[in-house]
Amino acid sequence: MKNFWVRAASAVVYVVLFLGCIYSGALLKNPTLGAIIFGAFLMFVACGCTFEFFRMVALQGATPCKPLGYAFTVITLLSLIGMQALSGVNGLKLIGVAIVLLPVVFGISAIVQLWYHSEQPFRDAAYTMVPMFYAAIPLGLMPLLHSGMNVLVMVLIMVWMNDNGAYMGGSLLGKHKMWERHSPGKTWEGTAIGVVITLLVAVFIGPLFNHDIAWYHWLVLGFICSVIDTLGDLVESMLKRSVGVKDSGKIMPGHGGFLDRFDSLLIAVPMVFVYITLFVEI
Q1: In the structure, how many helices (H) and strands (E) does the chain have?
Q2: Region 37-64 average pLDDT
Q3: What are the tens digits of pLDDT across the range 17-42?
Q4: What's the pLDDT score for residue 177?
Q5: Residue 246: C-alpha distances to residues 209, 240, 241 (Å)
Q6: How many CB atoms lie within 10 A of CB 59?
Q7: Contact 258/54 with Cβ under 8 angstroms?
Q8: What is the pLDDT of residues 176-199, one digit of tens each?
Q9: What does the alpha-carbon distance between residue 205 and residue 253 come to, in Å, rounded to a whole number?
């Protein structure tokens, strides 16, 4: 019971802090200051995710170039936020930039390994760039989903509803394990209940955030968030199990680290962004 109240209190602080940063511009009646506050929060999270990832892969004997990895994270996040602030919303341009970044960043990471004494230089080059794609780009897209499309908070709601629905459904009705090798607590019954709740929330509440997005698009977005939420959690669980740790960090009592709390969002946000950019006219 004590652990439950610790988790609950920690979750409340997290939600208040996250939403407070998102709406800080409106609360302070200063959009510029609000953008700075939200950007600073995202930078804090991005660097925290980078630290936790490097710490975990080090347990496998990996030696990524940490200074370069942090530089990739910081520069990418600042660039995405800056592009949105200076040139407005252009989803296709951002997708194109992300695609071009992949070979460029890998080339730089591989060249740097020439000066490292690594037994597996290409593995370490890949690990060096993972935080940039796993954390910096998804976090950098969040301001656009908020200010440009007004769907970020709805994405958060859908992911949280799926988490809670799956947890309660699994606790009450769960019998069949979904993927015991990676997450022994997840069940097919809980997952199904989480998906249904998320779809209902998406269709009935989504239009309140952006009425220009048709209900059937909200239905698809709800499905994307619910499925990716589950798979994103499994991916992070797979990473933790591969290095033999229970939590990625200790920043949130009862929940773990940055990656434990943001794992699903880091994969869901890019998926939502790409879907809206390609299929929804706003």
Answers
A1: 11, 2
A2: 95
A3: 999 999 999 999 999 999 999 999 99
A4: 76
A5: 36, 6, 7
A6: 11
A7: no
A8: 677 666 566 678 888 899 999 999
A9: 31
Binned at pLDDT 50, 70 and 90, residue 3 comes out as low
Q: Which two tokens stand for residue 47?
A: 């660097």
CA distance 184 to 167: 13
Structure tokens at 46: 């991005």
pLDDT of residue 182: 58
* DSSP string for residues in 204-245: HHHHHH-TTS-HHHHHHHHHHHHHHHHHHHHHHHHHHHHHT-
Cβ-contact 176, 192 below 8 angstroms:
no
pLDDT category at 55 given cuts 50, 70, 90 is very high
Greatest CA separation found in the chain?
A: 56
CA–CA distance, 196 with 192 (Å, rounded to integer): 6
Please state the pTM of the whole predicted model.
Answer: 0.90
Tokens representing residue 171 in the block: 């606790």
The number of beta carbons lying within 10 Å of the beta carbon of residue 118 is 16
Residues 6+ apart with CB under 8 A from 41: 17, 18, 21
Phi-psi region of 174 (alpha: psi -120 to 50; beta: other; left: phi over 0): beta
- The per-residue pLDDT for 174 is 63
Q: Which long-range contacts (CB under 8 A, 24 or more apart) does 250-258 make?
A: 251/48, 252/10, 252/14, 253/6, 253/7, 253/9, 253/10, 254/3, 254/6, 254/7, 254/9, 254/10, 254/11, 255/7, 255/10, 255/11, 255/14, 257/48, 257/52, 258/45, 258/48, 258/49, 258/52
Q: How far is CA 55 from CA 110, 114, 135, in A?
A: 20, 22, 15
The answer to whether the beta carbons of residues 178 and 214 sit under 8 Å apart is: no
Structure tokens at 87: 């040139």
